Amino acid sequence: MIDYQNLGDEGLASCIRKGDRIAFTEIYDRYWTVLYLHARKMLRNDQEAEDIVQELFTQLWKKAAEINYTVKLSSYLYRSVRNRILDHITHQKVVQDYQRSLVEFLGSRASSPDELLVEKELAFLIEQEIQALPEKMREVFVLSRKQHLSYKEIGDQLGISEHTVRNQVSNALSILRTKLGVSSMVIFMLLSK
After folding, report:
1. Got the DSSP string for 130-181?
2. What is the pLDDT of residue 119?
3. Which domains does the chain have, with CATH numbers?
4. Cut 0.90: pTM above it
């Protein structure tokens, strides 16, 4: 039997490549908190830091057999978190620029009666599709997008994990995008009114 707690990172990495869940859990337990604190320090946002570290470990497990560690595992994990943070910051800047230009565009012109009617019809269709979501998914989605609760607050209120909340919101948005053929930004803007 392998003593995972006393096994070095390279030994654990080798076990992970072979699909060893216990080795993965040991790496997760060993590095999750320190990577989270590192990400939180850079982002100054608990939820975003948690998401980035969680995505890193999800990817680490999914692609365990493909990953070739040419450096120490700890260096690989830190570099991966840093790169994900930089990608996230770049993406956030693009999103903010897009949202700002969209708000400026929408604010710079008066809506015609036809545009208001189309907007009202789209809001009605979105609401219908929200009501058609599975009950728990709908409840989580409404708490997140209409009542603006955090994933943690929703999890505490419903007695489920933040990870489950995140998945439910993501799945709900995916369903709405597919059924309505509109972007998340449009859904968000119409729900904000």
Report:
1. HHHS-HHHHHHHHHHHTS---HHHHHHHHT--HHHHHHHHHHHHHHHHHHH-
2. 73
3. 4-90 (1.10.1740.10), 110-192 (1.10.10.10)
4. no
